[in-house]
Write a structure and sequence with these properties.
By secondary structure, the protein is an alpha+beta fold. The chain contains 8 helices and 6 strands, in the order βββαββααβααααα.
């Protein structure tokens, strides 16, 4: 079952004096690209959080945000009285008759005037945080699975379209070879000098062998079936699907170069269009 690398998860923890919210979103990436926004008080746990996410999500451009909201009646911010007084005294030396109320308003905006007491994370609290992280990751994974189902339907439609186009190519193949033979015979007939019939037949056979597309049709059909089989494997494997899509592209390109038939070349263009859509979506598969 394939999974998309696009996903979103969110979970909230309500404690006595705070509300902790964990949000995580992911987009496609060749590797695990993890960006974190974590409050300073929880920085000591960042490595553990990163490992928890890496073990679960494997790959993708991951953005996570951990926010803390104070729900207590008490204000967690403390005025650094000594610093504020120092600022006011300095400003009074510059402007002795200044309004102290206005100076106070200015002083509390100065660096270090307000401080947030540092707090140590209790182990029990962190265990609860680990739980909400896991809940958000589970929600994100479910999002990925659902997106993967939608992508699989699109892939199956594109593959079926290419299969139908391949059938159209097979129908045109006899007409194509007959057209090539007629063109060659007409060209030979216009040559004034006598042509060795046996030599002509040998050259014709050699030319037809170069134009033969049987192997390409068989290989492309096999690649299409292999792509569908890979879609239904238990483990999502976007890289493998990408490799198969590349092989499909090689066979389609060879069909186009060997076609020598306007109708067949038009069908090849339609095949390439379907394959291009597949390649774009494969980049978003885990």
């Amino acid at each position: 079952m394939i999974q998309s690398m696009t996903g979103f998860g969110k979970s909230t923890l309500l404690l006595t004096q705070k509300k902790i919210t964990f949000e995580i979103k992911s987009l496609n990436s060749k590797t695990l690209d993890l960006n974190t926004r974590i409050p300073q008080a929880y920085r000591e746990k960042e490595l553990q959080i990163r490992k928890q996410i890496a073990d679960t999500l494997e790959r993708g451009k991951i953005d996570l945000t951990l926010t803390i909201e104070n729900t207590s009646d008490k204000n967690s911010t403390i005025i650094n009285a000594d610093i504020v007084k120092g600022y006011i005294n300095q400003m009074l030396q510059i402007i002795p008759n200044a309004d102290t109320t206005e100076l106070l308003k200015m002083a509390v905006r100065m660096p270090d005037a307000l401080v947030i007491p540092s707090e140590e994370i209790q182990e029990e609290e962190y265990k609860q945080i680990e739980n909400i992280i896991q809940q958000a990751l589970a929600e994100l994974k479910q999002f990925r699975i659902q997106e993967g189902k939608n992508l699989q339907k699109d892939f199956e439609l594109r593959i079926e379209n290419i299969k139908k186009l391949l059938v159209e190519i097979e129908k045109l193949d006899p007409e194509r070879l007959l057209s090539v033979r007629e063109r060659l015979e007409k060209s030979v007939a216009e040559i004034a000098e006598r042509v060795d019939e046996n030599r002509f037949e040998q050259e014709l056979i050699f030319y037809f062998e170069k134009l033969d597309i049987t192997e390409e049709k068989v290989r492309l059909s096999n690649h299409l079936n292999y792509f569908l089989e890979t879609l239904n494997e238990p483990q999502s494997n976007g890289r493998k699907l990408g490799f198969i899509a590349q092989e499909m592209g090689r066979e389609i390109n060879t069909l186009g170069s060997k076609a020598s038939h306007a109708g067949m070349q038009q069908i090849v263009v339609l095949m390439k269009n379907e394959l291009e859509k597949i390649k774009e979506q494969v980049l978003n598969i885990l």
